[in-house]
Amino acid sequence: TQWIPAYQMPARAVTLAIRTFIDVFPHALLFTGGYREFILVGSPSPINLATLETRFYEQPRVTADLWRAQVPSPLSLLARIVQGDAALRRHFGEGRVIRDVHNDLEFLFHDPSASEVITYAPFEILDHHPDLTCGHRLREVLTHMGRLRYHVPRYPLPTLLTARDVTSPAIRLSDVDWLEVTRMMEEATGFESQGQLEAAYGSARRALELAPEQPRVLLLVATLQLRLGLALAALDTLDRFQRLEPDEEAGHRLLGTALMRQGRQAEAIAAMTRAVELDPRSPEARRTLGSTLVRTGDLDEGIRHLREAVALQPNRRETRRQLEVALERKASQVPQ
Questions:
Q1: Are 28 and 45 in contact, with CB atoms under 8 Å apart?
Q2: pTM here?
Q3: Which of 40, 65, 127, 276, by CA, is between 20 and 30 Å from 231?
Q4: Residues 6+ apart with CB under 8 A from 40
């Protein structure tokens, strides 16, 4: 593997580094690691993505590390492939490479205004790996810029913007001003962190107007609606989210919260239970379900989920306090 921090490298240095890498390795992939950082993976033999997919959950410690890096599933890892082997060789091609006796890097200087832009080339990955179990979902994500930004939150915007140059097949939301959407999202989360919920809601709604099918924006809008006491509006927003991402934990968890606010207890618990089923490693899903079960009288099951939430996120004071209150309540019910 080779790290390529494109944001701090001269444009020609990025080209040289990638060209040298693919000159050495007969098979290579380029992943985004987040923002303008990329990761090259090389191999002397073909890289089997189906094997990666099937082995994703085999080693719990590795899976946990990936989860913390916002890579919770094989799909979210495969969606980070920016260019496959054929695209790398086509875009970076023949030319000089870095050698011990001839290192062009030492003569290059960084010019931030002339940064390398890695173009978006997802389709060869899909065409050369038809045996992927998540292949259909992956194609849907890679051809929808809103969903791609949801599954890869830090997907590099300069690369994303090159998607509008891809003509076949059509890519949805490729014409969106993603720089402005990102700015509005950052503004909204900034207001939210300061407790200015109305201002945050306004910024989030403006971002949604620019990208109506952006799952991440929909989740933020729904979260703010719940915090502002707009449960009915949140239900509508979450319905729009689930049409795009029906199998995402966050959508079911927030749906459960909105349903509880409407007094629809059984539906709420069913939605929260589904959230835990979809992502058992989510401390928020466990905490939300656990606290709801405790509140509705199912102490044993609620305490079990709260304990799981604490184990997953030991430093979360709110969860630990909820568990302590639940245990105290259970102890008070035991006959002396």
A1: no
A2: 0.86
A3: 276
A4: 1, 2, 4, 17, 18, 21, 28, 29, 30, 31
Give me the mean pLDDT over the 87-109 stretch. 82
The 3 state secondary structure assigned to the chain is CEEEEHHHCCHHHHHHHHHHHHHHCCEEEEEEEECCEEEEEEECCCCCHHHHHHHCCCCHHHHHHHHHCCCCCHHHHHCCEEECHHHHHHHHCCCCCCECCECHHHHCCCCHHHCCCCCCECHHHHHHCCCCCCHHHHHHHHCEHHHHHHHCCCCCHHHHHHHHHCCCCCCECCCCCHHHHHHHHHHHHHHHHCCCHHHHHHHHHHHHHHCCCCHHHHHHHHHHHHHCCCHHHHHHHHHHHHHHCCCCHHHHHHHHHHHHHCCCHHHHHHHHHHHHHHCCCCHHHHHHHHHHHHHCCCHHHHHHHHHHHHHHCCCCHHHHHHHHHHHHHHHHHCCC
